[in-house]
Design a protein that fits this description.
Layout (H helix, E strand, L loop, with lengths): L3 H14 L3 E8 L11 H9 L3 E2 L3 E3 L2 E5 L5 E6 L4 E6 L9 E7 L5 E6 L5 E6 L24 H10 L4 H6 L9 H11 L12 H20 L41 E5 L2 E5 L13
Antiparallel strand pairs: 1-2, 1-7, 3-4, 4-5, 5-9, 6-8, 7-8, 10-11
Helix pairs in contact: 1-6, 3-6, 5-6
The protein binds a DNA duplex (16 and 16 nucleotides) through loops.
Length: about 290
DNA sequence: ACTAGAACCTGGCCGC
DNA sequence: TGCGGCCAGGTTCTAG
């Protein structure tokens, strides 16, 4: 499940292997993979052919490749199971291959592979002022961004009226954090996911942000997290940060700080993992 | 304006 | 062996 560290690994792969190359043909194999593209699959195939992909950018979990000229970009979101692979043209198609982009240099082709089809590609105009594509404009900066506003984040967090985990998952407040790193950050900060944001002290707000930054930086240093074969980077290699997770996916295993068994709760149609001793449930929590 | 929850999607896995 | 149901979860849409 790609979150910020995984997406950044993919961005680096794109920057080194795709940036600076000119596309030849584009083949859309599944309409849902391009549902965010205003003109549909045929339109994307035509407008993306013969274009220079200038660089690889990222904000939160969104990736984009600005085209030559700079007023358009190919935007990619991996969703839950999306992969961007650079493969030799002769290698067999992947089962869930959705979009194929070949290049004028005849080298490795860029393939968008996505089993669950939550992800997708789109060609979008780029806003001249922010240098961000249209669909990325509402996404907040992420904790690894040098321009991230820490004080502003802490203030905004404490003005929310919700549970702290919901707030961490809100990409308009802070981007890049998904279910896995939210649980890891909360474990590090010793906060329960249902803790009402309006009761957070400023030190607590600072602490959870610092924890999120630390766990994502550590994951990035190891090449991203992976739990199965769904996530691979642009070269096709899996990350392996899952060995370092302290809470997520560790139901009934002892907390490495205190030994209490990690518990799993259903929360927001997904799972939340907490240490019941280090992260006690607040008396009046917000779900 | 803000918050909460459903919907989208496929394949692996489990129990029967 | 097969089948129904559950689970994984990022984002968008809709309802309140």
């Amino acid at each position: 499940m790609p979150e910020l560290p995984e997406v950044e690994v993919v961005r680096r792969g794109l920057q080194s292997q795709v940036a600076g190359r000119t596309t030849a043909a584009v083949q859309v194999l599944h309409p849902r993979a391009v549902r965010r593209h205003a003109g549909g699959g045929r339109d994307l195939e035509h407008r993306l052919s013969g274009r220079l992909l200038a660089s690889a950018e990222r904000r939160g979990k969104y990736l984009w490749l600005p085209l030559d000229g700079g007023d358009e970009a190919l935007v990619a979101h991996l969703g839950m199971s999306g992969q961007l692979l650079v493969q030799p043209p002769e290698s067999p198609d992947e089962t869930h291959l959705r979009v194929r982009i070949t290049f004028a240099d005849g080298g490795g082709e860029l393939r968008f592979v996505d089993q669950r089809t939550f992800g997708g590609l789109a060609l979008e105009p780029v806003d001249a002022d922010t240098a961000a594509p249209a669909s990325v404009r509402h996404i907040a900066r992420d904790p690894l961004d040098p321009l991230f506003d820490e004080r502003g984040f802490a203030t905004a967090l404490r003005h929310r009226r919700t549970g702290v985990k919901r707030a961490l998952l809100d990409q308009t407040l802070v981007s890049g954090i998904g279910n896995i790193y939210a649980d890891e950050a909360l474990w590090r900060a010793r906060l329960h996911y249902a803790r009402p944001t309006e009761t957070l002290t400023r030190p607590e707000a600072d602490r959870v942000l610092r924890a999120a930054r630390e766990v994502m930086a550590a994951a990035l240093a190891q090449g991203g997290t992976s739990f199965d074969a769904l996530y691979v980077n642009v070269n096709g290699a899996s990350g392996y940060f899952d060995r370092s997770l302290e809470a997520y996916g560790r139901r009934d295993e002892p907390c490495s700080r205190c030994g209490a068994p990690i518990r799993r709760d259903a929360f927001m149609n997904r799972s939340s993992y907490t240490c019941p001793r280090c992260q006690p449930r607040p008396r009046r929590g917000r779900w």
